[in-house]
Amino acid sequence: MYIIAGLGNPGRQYANTRHNMGFMALDILGQRHNIGYPEDGHKSMFGKGRIGSEKVVLVKPLTYMNLSGEALLSICSYYKIDIAEELIVIYDDIDLDPGVLRIRKSGSAGGHNGMKNIVKLLGTQDFTRIRIGVGAKPKGWDLADYVLARLSDEEAAVQREAAEHAAEAVELILSEGVDAAMNRYNKKG
Question: How far apart are CA 152 and CA 88, in angstroms?
């Protein structure tokens, strides 16, 4: 069983923002496989289903971004998954150009506070992650204001396509493995 978590902030005011790229990708994945989020627990909204032959749990932490680890620790412990092999986390990254994906089997949290919390509480940085580039903040902007700002129509189209690619990357990870997804989606940029 895989736990696939999309990071973001709950609430309408955060929809269509850079910081909610994980939620956006997870929603696309859920729509493609008819998996909603009917369950509430583990500080999350989540739903169970299948992607191909794999059982999955799609998870949206409700803790707000910076405390995402609380939700993932709870649900990973409940389902007793092998975190290194069966956890996939999707999130935004300001160090990548808008729309660029980076998939890794392991790595530091970088400057992402949600990932810092996850790594700290899970006690490992060895789990698959899909980072979706949202671009660096413009000069003079506060970082929080930038990642929580609504996307323009042009930006939304680029980010929607990136979220679709992230959903496809999850499908490829489940069917052919992380290396296959890294080879297909880790491009320069």
Answer: 28
Tell me: the pLDDT tens digits for 103-117? Answer: 999 999 988 999 999
Is residue 42 part of the annotated active site? The answer reads no
- Report the chain's terminal Cα–Cα distance, integer Å: 33
Cβ neighbours of residue 2 closer than 8 Å, sequence gap 6 or more:
51, 54, 55, 56, 57, 81, 86, 87, 88, 174
Whole-angstrom distance, CA of residue 59 vs CA of residue 6: 6
d(C-alpha 69, C-alpha 5), whole Å:
11
pLDDT tens digits for 44-87?
A: 999 999 999 999 999 999 999 999 999 999 999 999 999 999 99
100-129 b/e with 16+ CB inside 10 Å = b?
bbbbeeeeebeebbbbbbbbebbeebebbb
Helices (H), 33-152: 68-79, 83-86, 113-122, 143-147
Domain count, the chain: 1
Compute the distance between CA of residue 93 and CA of residue 171 in angstroms, rounded to an integer: 21
Task: Report residue 111: phi and psi, to 5°.
Answer: -100, 10
Q: Which domain holds residue 133?
A: 2-185
CATH assignment at residue 146: 3.40.50.1470
Of 19, 42, 112, 165, catalytic: 19
**What is the three-class DSSP state of 27?**
helix
